[in-house]
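Researcher: I'd like a candidate sequence for this fold, 224 residues long. If you have to choose between options at a position, lean toward the conservative one.
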């Protein structure tokens, strides 16, 4: 059994789960339409490598900071069903099913907040998740727990994905011998360089160029 690691957004998913969640909030009239322009501005920073992940997390959670964790979990069922499930690449489903029959251990690692990623992982049948953890807060109105919008610990973003993975490995019986990592983004270069089998999926321009130079496999599910 070897470890197989997947990025989520634009790798298994045709799109960005955080952006889709923002669109969901707008469609549910839980956020103003201007949320999408702000999300686009942050995405451009993600692409050019200048994104402050803490600022983005606070931005995307602001419209639901009045909701409890229980209320958010109810919304997630509809979100995953209507916005995520139709956008999972069919080839991703096929690969995950193949890995399940081979009894490989699969880990999903993402720079999206944990409550979104865990809901998607459950839909995909993935048990192991590393995502951005959030500090909890007590709601003033009802005493229930909500999300503060502040990141707890190390964010699983860029080099932080390596840190979180190594922390996870310290607490499991897994190792990186023969491990694979599937990703679309040059932002994940540090983790791609760490594993024995880096595999680029739907790579962005910078990652595609790097993969060609390194002789890494390139898979493109976008036009198939």
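Model: Candidate sequence:
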């Amino acid at each position: 059994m070897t470890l197989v690691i997947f990025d989520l957004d634009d790798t298994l998913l045709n799109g960005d789960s955080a952006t889709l969640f923002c669109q969901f909030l707008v469609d549910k009239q839980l956020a103003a339409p201007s949320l999408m322009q702000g999300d686009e501005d942050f995405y451009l920073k993600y692409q050019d490598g200048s994104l402050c992940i803490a600022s983005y997390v606070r931005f995307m959670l602001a419209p639901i900071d009045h909701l409890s964790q229980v209320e958010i979990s109810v919304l997630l069922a509809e979100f995953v069903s209507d916005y995520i499930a139709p956008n999972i690449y069919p080839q991703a489903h096929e690969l995950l099913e193949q890995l399940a029959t081979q009894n490989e251990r699969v880990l999903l690692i993402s720079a999206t907040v944990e409550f979104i990623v865990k809901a998607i992982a459950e839909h995909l049948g993935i048990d192991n998740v590393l995502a951005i953890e959030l500090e909890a807060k007590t709601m003033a109105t009802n005493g229930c727990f909500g999300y503060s919008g502040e990141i707890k610990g190390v964010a699983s973003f860029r080099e932080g994905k390596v840190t979180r993975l190594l922390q996870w490995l310290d607490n499991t019986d897994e190792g990186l011998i023969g491990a694979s990592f599937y990703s679309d983004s040059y932002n994940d270069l540090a983790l791609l360089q760490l594993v024995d089998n880096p595999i680029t999926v739907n790579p962005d321009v910078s990652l595609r160029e790097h993969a060609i130079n390194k002789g890494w496999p390139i898979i493109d599910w976008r036009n198939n």
